């Protein structure tokens, strides 16, 4: 069970990131929770400078850009 | 460099569609085809180039560079220049602000970065290059950077730290000593190219609609509004034109992609370029949505001071452009 968090204040890029992650989870058929973190104070706890950021099991994997689905696949299978 | 595109547009509109080069419609359509193609090509090339630059200067590295080096004033220029080359979406402005302040970067330097970053971006540069040529584009980039530097220096002299919100002060206290290490990306340059290309393509795709609308309206005006039309209302000598343009521009928040093609037509039809540039900078550089985001980290008073200083600097650069261009 993976815990995925998407950090972002709600800009288009953050929504794209969420869509990519959902798609990959469906494809892989793995169990995972997705949480969108939109509160800026919570986001800052992760020390990211630019959003969107992808956090898997409390570890920042990608920040400042929309990830590609292949990338997310690799990260989730690891 | 773009002669072949002009030939293509001429051939398409005048020969293939057989619309007279002397008709308003022919002129408008030709302008539309030529400008759209030219701008889309430039847009892709420049976003791609910026993507490459960016993969070498990720924002974390810039932050640690700025916080580690004492540059005797040069840090304003460095921050502002980095602001020009790094793209980030406007919703990153608060995380960036906090990250910079946390990393011990002075407030004025952080402001220099924050001001230039939206003002000079790859989309605006590409469209500027396509519509106004190299000289005006360089003037625009340099003035965007100078604007950040000067506003940053002025703001730093005002002792604004007490006007930050309590939250920022808390963050500050907590993280004084921390200097986080960033994970270096392990991928090689060649491995990165496809994803840079994809990203550039994505950026072009996300603005293409605005570009088309902007150029379409521009093209219509180009064909139908007579030469020098606006000159009778706003000339170089109309002293209040620059402040008026800036005041109109601040509350407006438009995509640079849509607004620049329009401005080119305004310029072609007689509005002085400095006035137009000031308007554009006010539209893309300052926005109400960004100001509301900044409220999270700044008191209302500080947000107003920030907007005020930048507005005045934009106005001054508008007058300067009218003098030198």
The tally of domains of chain B stands at 1
N- to C-terminal separation of chain A?
12 Å
Which shape of chain A, going by the Cα principal axes?
A: globular
- Please state the oligomeric state of the protein chains shown: heterodimer
Q: List the total number of helices of chain A.
A: 3
The spatial strand order of the largest sheet of chain A comes to: 2-1-3-4
Query: Could you tell me the radius of gyration of chain B in angstroms?
Result: 21 Å
CATH architecture label name of chain A: 3-Layer(aba) Sandwich
Judged by helices, strands and strand pairing, the structural class of chain B is: mainly alpha
List keywords for this structure.
heterodimer, A: 78 residues, alpha+beta, Glutaredoxin, 4-stranded mixed β-sheet, 3 helices, 4 strands, B: 325 residues, mainly alpha, 15 helices, 0% strand, globular
Task: Explain what the structure shows.
The complex is a heterodimer of chains A (78) and B (325). Chain A has helices at 12-28, 40-44, 69-77, and strands spanning 2-7, 32-37, 53-56, 59-63. Chain A has 78 residues and is α+β, with helices and mostly antiparallel strands. Chain A has one domain: Glutaredoxin (3-Layer(aba) Sandwich). In chain A, strands 2-1-3-4 form a four-stranded mixed beta sheet. In chain A, helix 1 (12-28) links the parallel strand 1 and strand 2 (32-37). In chain A, helix 1 (12-28) crosses helix 3 (69-77). The longest helix of chain A has 17 residues, at 12-28. The radius of gyration of chain A is 11 Å and the shape is globular. The mean pLDDT of chain A is 84. By secondary structure, chain B is mainly α. Helix content of chain B is 73%, strand content 0%. Chain B is built from 15 helices and no strands. Chain B has helices at 3-16, 24-56, 59-68, 74-85, 93-102, 107-119, 122-132, 134-156, 166-174, 189-224, 241-249, 256-268, 273-285, 288-294, 300-324. Classes of the chains: A alpha+beta (78), B mainly alpha (325). The A-B interface holds A 8-14, 40-41, 43-44, 47-51, 64-66, 68 and B 58-60, 63, 88-92, 94-96, 98-100, 167, 171, 180, 195, 198-199, 202, 206, 293, 296.
